[in-house]
Amino acid sequence: MFSKIRRNFFTGTLIVIPVVLTIWVLYFIVNKFNSLLLDPIMEFLRNWIPTENVEVLTKSLVFLLLLILLTAIGLATRIIIIRNIFGFGERILYRVPMISSIYRAIKEISFAFFAKKTSIFQRVVLVEYPRKGLYQIGFVTSETKGEAQEKTKEKVINVFIPTTPNPTSGMLVLVPAEDVIDMTMSVAEGMKMVISGGAVVPTRYGYTKDRGSTSEKKGSQGD
């Protein structure tokens, strides 16, 4: 029985001590804040507020400032801890074979897609790929420069050909400028077409997901 009483005593002590210490620390901080800020704030507020209300209002302001400070410290600490956790997890991923190369590639692609304020895609084009007679929707990223351009006979353009329905993956094709067919649709419209697998195309050309193409309509009317 004595052992049970002792265990309960220690359990109660372990619960009460943190609470008491927390209250004591807060009391100490509030007193310090009052000693540092109370008199200056009271002197400042006396010019606009009746004297009998100055002390109450000043202590309320000091307490509010303390709450804001503690909340800001807590937020900053959480951000630092979360960043450290993500940094630790990232370091682990970098050391795992195969996963490290995949993670690096995805991270670089994500940064290229989302970190820049302007889109990396300049315009929508059609290119014959993977062979003549087959066309792919592509997005021009830039004009080819450097060694790749020097070793080609004609001027080539960097074209990103996305996959359907996930446009974040795809392939880079260096296409001769004369073989690139420019489209008037916007990049957003082209991306919708890719993601939908061709089911959604710009309505300004007479195409919709439900109604089909203009040519199909004309053919049906002729029948």
Question: Can you characterise this structure?
Answer:
There is one protein chain. The chain has 223 residues and is α+β, with helices and mostly antiparallel strands. The chain has 2 domains: 2-93, no CATH class; 118-209, SH3 type barrels (Roll), CATH 2.30.30. It has 6 helices and 5 strands; from the N terminus they run αααββαβββαα. Strands 4-3-2-1-5 form a 5-stranded antiparallel β-sheet, covered by helices on one side. Helix 1 (2-45) crosses helix 2 (51-95). The protein is elongated, with a radius of gyration of 34 Å.
Q: What are the salient characteristics of this protein?
A:
single chain; 223 residues; alpha+beta; SH3 type barrels; 2 domains; five-stranded antiparallel beta sheet; 14% strand; disordered C terminus
Alpha plus pi helix count? 6
- Secondary-structure-derived class: alpha+beta
Could you tell me how far the N terminus lies from the C terminus, measured between alpha carbons in angstroms?
Answer: 99 Å
β-sheet strand percentage: 5-15%
The largest pleated sheet is described as: 5 strands, antiparallel
Q: For the largest beta sheet, what order do the strands appear in spatially?
A: 4-3-2-1-5
Runs with pLDDT <50, length 5+? 210-223
The level of helicity is 55-70%
Shape, please? elongated
Secondary-structure element order, as H and E? HHHEEHEEEHH
